[in-house]
């Protein structure tokens, strides 16, 4: 697996898959484990214990990722954040191999690329836990050490994914994500988007298509599986 530098042949379709809460169920509550560790990290760097939750929540809303706010306002050490937050998560005991997911991804007749707001190590661990890490050509991820790194739903994050994957034509790009805002941005960018959520889209422009779980992808895009 690579993290960029590929080139796509003209007319070649590519499917971008989000990872967290998309390839596995949000009912596993990994996002809650992440939040707990972020709050603990915040308290550890001296943030007010009484307002750390409110502050971290505001950073997430303002910057797309809490870690971006922590970097901008607290000058956090990225290596320490990775170690104490992502690195401390018990992913291997929470996320189990998913044979049905593997079969579905294997059967799609497009190039396959992972596209996440997580860091590389976290994304790689999740894919390995699911036993699908060998099915993707590469990962577009957030490099926390990069100044002002882009993240979904910013347009430059989608541009980065196209550049790293070598995709040339937005009309040949497909995308699945559990976040309505991320999917809406992809739709506006020109990709064919799929919202993966048990809740229906709140706005008609949020997604081209909607499924409850990623396993249902063949039901809404059968042309990619034949």
TrEMBL record:
MF term (GO), any: nucleotidase activity
GO-annotated biological processes: nucleotide catabolic process; pyrimidine nucleobase metabolic process
Pfam families: Hydrolase
InterPro entries: HAD-like_sf (IPR036412), HAD-SF_hydro_IA (IPR006439), HAD_sf (IPR023214), Pyr-5-nucltdase (IPR010237), SSM1_domain (IPR052791)
PANTHER family (alphabetical): PHOSPHATE METABOLISM PROTEIN 8-RELATED (PTHR47438:SF1)
NCBIfam families: HAD-SF-IA-v3 (TIGR01509), Pyr-5-nucltdase (TIGR01993)
Full protein name: Suppressor of disruption of TFIIS
Organism: Coemansia spiralis
Protein encoded by which gene: SDT1
């Amino acid at each position: 697996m690579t993290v960029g530098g590929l080139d796509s042949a003209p007319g070649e379709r590519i499917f971008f898959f989000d990872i967290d809460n998309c390839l596995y169920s949000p009912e596993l509550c990994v996002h809650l484990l992440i939040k707990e560790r972020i709050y603990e990290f915040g308290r550890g760097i001296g943030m007010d214990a009484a307002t750390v939750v409110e502050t971290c929540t505001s950073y997430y809303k303002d910057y797309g990722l809490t870690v971006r706010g922590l970097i901008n306002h607290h000058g956090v050490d990225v290596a320490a954040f990775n170690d104490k937050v992502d690195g401390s998560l018990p992913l291997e005991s929470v996320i189990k191999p998913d044979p049905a997911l593997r079969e579905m991804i294997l059967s799609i007749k497009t190039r396959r690329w992972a596209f996440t707001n997580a860091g590389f190590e976290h994304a790689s661990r999740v894919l390995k836990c699911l036993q699908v890490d060998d099915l993707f050509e590469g990962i577009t991820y957030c490099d926390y050490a990069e100044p002002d790194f882009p993240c979904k739903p910013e347009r430059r994050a989608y541009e980065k994914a196209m550049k790293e994957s070598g995709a040339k034509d937005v009309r040949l790009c497909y995308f699945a994500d559990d976040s309505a805002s991320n999917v809406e941005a992809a739709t506006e960018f020109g990709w064919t988007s799929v919202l993966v959520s048990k809740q229906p889209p709140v706005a008609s422009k949020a997604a081209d298509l909607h499924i409850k779980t990623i396993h249902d992808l063949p039901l809404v895009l059968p042309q990619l599986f034949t």
